[in-house]
Amino acid sequence: MTLIELMIVLTIIITIISVAVPLYQKAIIRAKESVLKNNLFTLRTLIDEYTFDKEKAPQSLQDLVTEGYLREVPLDPFTKSRESWKVEMEDAVRSVDQKEPGIIDVHSGSDGKALDGSKYADW
């Protein structure tokens, strides 16, 4: 091979890599967003089921594990932590059990922005 042929091959390889890497990175982010949406859906569904079954909302996400609704609290795929979930507590006046207001919603603890421009913490 001549030096020119080698340079042409390397140029082609570099061009292909420069296109593939950003696509790969976006695919990873899309996968994490999908996991986050699934985790939030599951947590919200189980909070509703717990509230319906026990006639009071859970005081923490760990209550869902203790009562057997979850095997373990899922990881937030962006913070890589089980402790970073931000919970939204119900108003004591509107709660099922007014003595112990509990969790009504959960959000990601991440400060990042999604590919669509929204914040993960707002999902």
Folded structure, characterized:
The protein has 123 residues and is mostly helical. It has one domain (3-111). The chain is built from 2 helices and 2 strands. The protein has a two-stranded antiparallel ribbon with strand order 1-2. The longest helix has 52 residues, at 3-54. The chain is rod-shaped. The model has no long low-confidence stretch (mean pLDDT 91).
User: What structural class is derived from the secondary structure elements?
Assistant: mainly alpha
* Amount of helix: 40-55%
- Give the oligomer, counting copies of the same chain as homo and different chains as hetero: single chain
Sheet with the most strands: spatial strand order: 1-2
For the CA atoms, what is the radius of gyration? Answer: 22 Å
The average pLDDT value, as a whole number, equals: 91
Give the end-to-end Cα distance, rounded to a whole number of Å: 56 Å
Helices, by number, come to 2
* Strand percentage: 5-15%
Tally of strands? 2
Shape: rod-shaped
Main beta sheet: 2 strands, antiparallel
Overall structural domain count: 1
Instruction: Provide the low-confidence segments as ranges.
Output: none
**Secondary-structure element order, N to C:** HHEE
Sum this structure up briefly.
With 123 residues, this protein is mostly helical.
Topology:
Layout (H helix, E strand, L loop, with lengths): L2 H52 L6 H6 L19 E4 L13 E5 L16
Antiparallel strand pairs: 1-2
Which labels suit this protein?
2 helices; 123 residues; 2 strands; mainly alpha; two-stranded antiparallel sheet; 47% helix
